[in-house]
Amino acid sequence: MVEPQLTARLNNLEGSVSTINGDIKVSWSINERQLAMSLQVPNNSLAHLLLPDVNDLLVTQQGIAVTDISALTPGEYNISGIVSF
């Protein structure tokens, strides 16, 4: 599960978590409550994205909208939305 703890105090962040299949990488920036996030899911993995404090959520992979964020397959994702602090 990928559940970033978004806060007004951390408006730019980058990190990774090592797994047996490779690193899950995430980075984000928040500017005037607008979220811009990048997520990389390693091979042979699924990720469940949880962003309860983000409205107008849009998740894309290679420019195509992704509707099921409970089972993100390997690859790179771009995520945007409005953060409600």
| Main β-sheet, spatial strand arrangement | 1-2-3-6-4-5
Mean pLDDT: 95
The 3D shape can be described as globular
Total of helices: 0
Computed over alpha carbons, the radius of gyration is 12 Å
- Estimated share of beta-strand residues: over 45%
Number of discrete domains:
1
State the share of residues found in helices, binned by percent. Answer: under 10%
Which CATH architecture is right? Sandwich
Q: Termini distance?
A: 21 Å
Largest sheet: 6 strands, antiparallel
CATH class annotation: Mainly Beta
CATH homology superfamily name: Maltose phosphorylase, domain 3
Judged by helices, strands and strand pairing, the structural class is mainly beta
Q: What order do the helices and strands follow?
A: EEEEEE
What is the CATH topology classification name? Answer: Maltose phosphorylase, domain 3
Taking pLDDT < 50 over at least 5 consecutive residues as the criterion, the unreliable ranges are none
Question: Mind explaining what this structure looks like?
Answer:
This protein is an all-beta fold and 85 residues long. Helices cover 0% and strands 53% of the residues. The chain has a six-stranded antiparallel β-sheet, with no helix packed on it. Strand 1 and strand 2 (22-31) form a beta hairpin. The two termini are 21 Å apart.
